[in-house]
Structures are given as structure tokens and as C-alpha cells.
Amino acid sequence: MLNKAGNGLNDSLMAMAVSVGICLMLYIALISSLAITLVILAIGLGLIIYGERTGGIEKIYGVMERHKGKALGIMVLFALVLPFLLSGNNYLLHVIVIGGIYSIIALGLNFQVGSTGMVNFAPAAFYGTGAYTSAVLAVKFGISPWLGMICGLFMAALLGVVFGFPALKTRGYYLSLVTIALQVIFTLMIINTSWLGGPNGIPGIPAYQLFGYSFRKPLEILGFQLPYQTNYFYLIFLLLGLVALAASRLYNSRIGLAWNAIEQDEIVAATQGINLTKIKLLAFSLGAAFAGVAGALYAHYTSFIGNEDFDFSKSLVLICMVLLGGMDNVVGVTLGAILLTIIDEKLRDFADYRMLMYALILIIILITRPQGLLPKRNRKYQIKQESDAGYNVTVTMGGK
């Protein structure tokens, strides 16, 4: 019994140590120069590769799963304290807010690219749909941004259904080409529609308000005056937590199993009774809904949106976040989105060579780690059986 208690304490301390380490690495990467950020990324990548070769990574996964309450508690505490640590630098707080917005989109995109194996090159179109829907309702009709966010969610999901139903009749490269066409059509529609602001965009988008308090006002907590970005930071990371919880539950549900079955082999999935069109359309519409929420948040945070915020290059960046973090892994996708947002902002010092440097970094990472920082794991099932002696026996099985 003492050994079990000791092992439990050691596992608990390990889970807390890993959580603290991840938080510290993200914080140092955020406040440091590009060179130090890349060094931290390389160290983290090296530790993950070493852990996989020695079997330690599976032990850490198991410990984090058993003590996820403590691990999540440390993550929440870090999120609550971070605005105080960055109170003297509004720009860094802005970067982490944008990283949270992109994380929400990436988690929705992961349903398609990671879980179901559908490469969607138009996440920015659904992102823009949510942003323009909420912005137009607020600026032209005076509708509350909170209601506008809900409308943006439904409009993006509706676009996912309307476009996805015929598009999902195609597969592989053909589906990718169709999504590219959607992205191009969306960008051209924004530029050529004066009612949507055309190439000039939509300025003067109002901020969120809660009981008369504007989110564009500084926040005072315990005598500390924090910049207005703090209001959006807490809102966005609260929604990110809810979205990550929903994504995790979906992954462990029958729907998640059906998505993985389709990704492995559509024909075999269909023979097992999976409705391919219905399940794939669900992945498409849910991913679009997540992007719609993120778009509404972005519009009311920045107070201005334009076509360049939702063009094809933005879609490529969002896809890279899923690939780098690790497809079909909620933690990996979130981590990849935040890391790439930090790296992308630090590359602004290179001006015209920014995208070249960005591409080189991604190529090096993907060559070193093609499956992403935290790749998908084999599913483990536990089947309870009753033995001849009348005892319950748990059998653990592995599978995709």
C-alpha cells in the first residue's frame, strides 16, 4: 500500500512538473528573441524524440491522463497569471490573444485534416464568414456582438453544410482543389462587394460589452491596471478551454471513432455501417462553426477586418499549425497553433523575407518530425470481462 501511495505521489509530481515545464517554455518563447524561441523549440523537439525512443513519452502520456485534473489546474493558473506577467508589454499580450484565436480554428480544422483525412484549404473562408457576419450585424444593424458571434457560428456552419454536401462527393486531391476554389471565391466576393466594405474592409467594429463594461477599457484587478487586451485574453482562453473540451469529448466518442475509420479506409468504414456523407459533413460543419466563432472574436477584438485577413495564405498558415502540432491530437494542435503564432510574429523583423524564413523553419521541422510535435496515438480500449471465478478482469487492447 505504501508503494502504491508513493507511486501515486511521484506520478502526481511528474504531471505537475511536465505542466510547469510546458508553461515555462511557452512563456520564455513568447518574451525572448527569435533565436532563443527556435532553440527552445529545438530542445522541446529533441526531448519528445528522445522520450519516444526510450518509451518515456508513453509513461508521461499515462501520468498526464491519470492526473489531468492537476495538470489542467496548473495550466489554468498560468493563464490567469500571464496577463500580469505581460502587463508592461501590450504587444506580447496581443500575440498570445491571436494565438488563442488561431487555436480555436485549428481545433476545428483538425476534425477534417487530422481525424477524417480531408485536406481543407479553405479554413480562412469560414473564419472570414464568422468575422464578416458579426461585423456587418454590429456596424450596419446595431446588433449585440454576443448575438453576432452566435450568428457568425451558424452562418459559418451553414456555409460548411451548403458547400460541403456537394464537395464531399469528391475525395483526395479533388476535394483539396474544390476547397481552394471556395477560398478564392470567398476572397473575390469580399473584394468586389461594396456592401461588405470591398477592398477597404469594415472599420469601427464595436467591442464586446458585459453589463455596460466595454472590453476595450483597461481592466483593474487587485489594484493592478491591465491593458484592454486582458479582457479578450480571458474571454478567448475561456472559449478555447470549452472548445478543447468539446474536441476531446468528440475524439473519444463514437463520432471520433467513425472519423478515424473513414480516415483509415472509407470502403471498410462504409461496410461497417458508417454513413460516410453524414459523418464527413459533420466534421466539415463543426470545423466551420469553430472557425466562425474565432472570426467573430477577431473582428470585435481588432475593430477592423479586411480581405487580407482571410486570404489563401492565411489558410496555409492554419493548415501548418495542425501539421506541426500533430494531427488528431487536441493538445498538439493547440500547442502548434500558439507556437507558430509566436514564431510568425517574431519573423516580422525580416520584412520582405518573412515568409521565406517561415517556410524554411516549417520545412526543417517537418523533415525532422513529419508526424508533428505530438502526433496521434493508438487508441486503447478496456473491455471488462467476468472470469470463471466470478471476478471482473480488465483487458487492454490497442488500435487506431
UniProtKB/TrEMBL annotation:
Q: Which GO terms describe its molecular function?
A: branched-chain amino acid transmembrane transporter activity
Which domain of life, per UniProt?
Bacteria
Segments spanning the bilayer are: 15-48, 69-86, 92-111, 118-139, 145-165, 172-191, 232-251, 281-301, 316-343, 355-374
Q: Which residues form the signal peptide?
A: none
One GO cellular component this record assigns the protein to is: plasma membrane
User: Where does the protein end up?
Assistant: Cell membrane
In the bilayer, the protein is annotated as:
Multi-pass membrane protein
Keyword Transmembrane among record annotations: yes
Q: Which UniProt keywords apply?
A: Cell membrane, Membrane, Transmembrane, Transmembrane helix
| CDD domains documented for this protein | TM_PBP1_LivM_like
Just give the chief location class: membrane
Q: What is this protein called?
A: Leucine/isoleucine/valine transporter permease subunit
